[in-house]
Automatic annotation (TrEMBL):
<dbReference type="Pfam" id="PF04542">
    <property type="entry name" value="Sigma70_r2"/>
</dbReference>
<dbReference type="InterPro" id="IPR013325">
    <property type="entry name" value="RNA_pol_sigma_r2"/>
</dbReference>
<dbReference type="InterPro" id="IPR013249">
    <property type="entry name" value="RNA_pol_sigma70_r4_t2"/>
</dbReference>
<feature type="domain" description="RNA polymerase sigma factor 70 region 4 type 2">
    <location>
        <begin position="129"/>
        <end position="180"/>
    </location>
</feature>
<dbReference type="Pfam" id="PF08281">
    <property type="entry name" value="Sigma70_r4_2"/>
</dbReference>
<comment type="similarity">
    <text>Belongs to the sigma-70 factor family. ECF subfamily.</text>
</comment>
<dbReference type="InterPro" id="IPR036388">
    <property type="entry name" value="WH-like_DNA-bd_sf"/>
</dbReference>
<dbReference type="InterPro" id="IPR039425">
    <property type="entry name" value="RNA_pol_sigma-70-like"/>
</dbReference>
<dbReference type="GO" id="GO:0006352">
    <property type="term" value="P:DNA-templated transcription initiation"/>
</dbReference>
<dbReference type="GO" id="GO:0016987">
    <property type="term" value="F:sigma factor activity"/>
</dbReference>
<feature type="domain" description="RNA polymerase sigma-70 region 2">
    <location>
        <begin position="32"/>
        <end position="93"/>
    </location>
</feature>
<keyword id="KW-0804">Transcription</keyword>
<dbReference type="InterPro" id="IPR014284">
    <property type="entry name" value="RNA_pol_sigma-70_dom"/>
</dbReference>
<dbReference type="InterPro" id="IPR007627">
    <property type="entry name" value="RNA_pol_sigma70_r2"/>
</dbReference>
<protein>
    <submittedName>
        <fullName>Sigma-70 family RNA polymerase sigma factor</fullName>
    </submittedName>
</protein>
<dbReference type="GO" id="GO:0003677">
    <property type="term" value="F:DNA binding"/>
</dbReference>
<dbReference type="InterPro" id="IPR013324">
    <property type="entry name" value="RNA_pol_sigma_r3/r4-like"/>
</dbReference>
């Protein structure tokens, strides 16, 4: 059964149990709304995309705290709004302090799950055609695809190399795979 056709609360419960398809379904279902919400706030595509990635990263990390008496989209927007406010404060603080060093996060050791449908589609494509499609992705998506599928690094190794939290890497990979699959299938 296609998980995306299930009621939202069932998908959220599966995500709380760690089901990667549920996470992917939630990402697909709410990405555009969160992105457009942030694009309206930031007026900058790169900032909107970065904040959206961080929103899903934090939401997936804290999914067990979601209270079903509230709308899931409202919960996501609240997380997204708080990340944007934090980003603005950080930028203001950096400007005031003229200081560019940041805190390093501890990288969690996380086991990689079995390949998803997007992974299978990527593997089945002709390499030359695949590389052409990859070149059309934004640079940060190209980078995570390269590190994961061509250099075969684990999520933890990619997170360490990019200096980002592991959940950000997972969300970037989910989004990159979805965009790549759409390019390949011509959707």
């Amino acid at each position: 059964m296609d998980i995306s056709s299930q009621p939202l609360q069932d998908i959220i419960e599966k995500a709380k149990e760690g089901n990667q398809m549920a996470f992917s379904t939630l990402l697909d279902r709410f990405w555009n709304e969160v992105y457009n919400f942030q694009l309206g706030r930031t007026k900058n595509e790169n900032d909107a995309e970065d904040i959206t990635i961080q929103t899903f990263s934090k939401a997936f990390d804290k999914i067990h705290t979601y209270d079903p008496t509230y709308e899931f989209k409202t919960w996501l927007f609240t997380i997204s709004k708080n990340i944007h406010v934090d980003l603005l404060r950080k930028r203001k603080r950096n400007i005031l302090e003229h200081n560019s060093f940041g805190n390093q996060e501890v990288i969690k050791k996380v086991l990689d799950d079995a390949p998803t449908a997007e992974d299978q589609l990527i593997k089945e494509q002709n390499l030359a055609s695949l590389l052409r499609h990859i070149k059309n992705l934004k640079p940060h998506y190209r980078e995570v695809i390269n590190l994961r599928y061509f250099q075969e690094l684990s999520y933890a190794a990619i997170a360490e190399q990019l200096g980002e939290p592991i959940n950000n890497v997972k969300v970037k990979l989910l989004r990159a795979k979805k965009l790549l699959a759409e390019m390949i299938t011509g959707q």
